[in-house]
Amino acid sequence: AAPGVHPGRRRGLQRALAAVAAALALALALVGAHAARLADQVTELEAQLARPDRTGALGTLVAAPDLRSVALEGADGAVRFLWSDQLDRGVLAADGLDPLPASRSYQLWLFHDGAPRPAGLLRADGTGTVEVAAVTVRGAETVAITIEPRAGSPNPSGPVVASAHL
What we know:
The chain is built from two helices and eight strands; from the N terminus they run ααββββββββ. By secondary structure, it is of the alpha+beta class. The strands form two sheets. The protein has a four-stranded antiparallel beta sheet. The chain has a four-stranded antiparallel beta sheet with strand order 5-4-7-8, with no helix packed on it. The radius of gyration is 23 Å and the shape is elongated.
């Protein structure tokens, strides 16, 4: 025993430190598991987008030589925006967005010089997966998703669900 430290106090301190260490280990394990799940969802979304049987705007976009992709921050699920400046097109692919009541929609926004421009309405199905194709993106610096009335809004009025700088 250390001089001046009561043995009962030392055991209490050791127990408290052990409890804190166990809680930290559990928290790190949970964060690691969540990060792994999100990485798997992003990989699956990218694989779906790269399938050769895609046609139309999405298939053309995936084949673009300047295709870029960004993960949107803030959403619980995996949300990615893919775009080509050369084609002036973009796609939002999301997995994990919560289903909304019939009176609400997710709305996609592209910000040009700080001003929001509506880029489409997203309706999450029961699995929370949505896609929007053929969105004009050239010159946009930010993409965001908000919750708006079912018919959408001319300007963002609801909470921001996810966003990213392009």
